[in-house]
């Protein structure tokens, strides 16, 4: 039985030079996010990634995404 739960990760958004922007991103490898540049991701991955204005908001999205993929189809 295939278990397809997604395990997205939360990370601080950074500028290309590595400075923190104060916003947060949600990366889901199971959705195809390779944690590379935003421009190289698919539309779906971008939608999930955000960035979100606060850590709490990003965490909310992460938990919701995980819950959505937790079901046994
Ligand atoms: Zn996902």
Tell me roughly what share of residues is in helical segments.
25-40%
N-to-C SSE series?
EEHH
Strand order of the largest sheet: 1-2
The major sheet is characterized as: 2 strands, antiparallel
Q: In total, how many domains does the architecture comprise?
A: 1
What class do helices, strands and sheet pairing give?
A: alpha+beta
Description of the structure:
The protein is an alpha+beta fold. The protein has one domain (9-68). Helix content is 29%, strand content 19%. β1 (9-14) and β2 (20-27) form a beta hairpin. The protein is globular. The site of zinc ion has 7 residues, from loops.
Brief digest:
The chain has 73 residues and is α+β, with helices and mostly antiparallel strands. The chain contains two helices and two strands, in the order ββαα. Strand 1 and strand 2 (20-27) form a beta hairpin.
Characteristic key phrases:
73 residues; alpha+beta; two-stranded antiparallel sheet
Layout: helices, strands, pairs:
Layout: E1 9-14, E2 20-27, H1 43-49, H2 55-68
Antiparallel strand pairs: 1-2
The structure holds zinc ion.
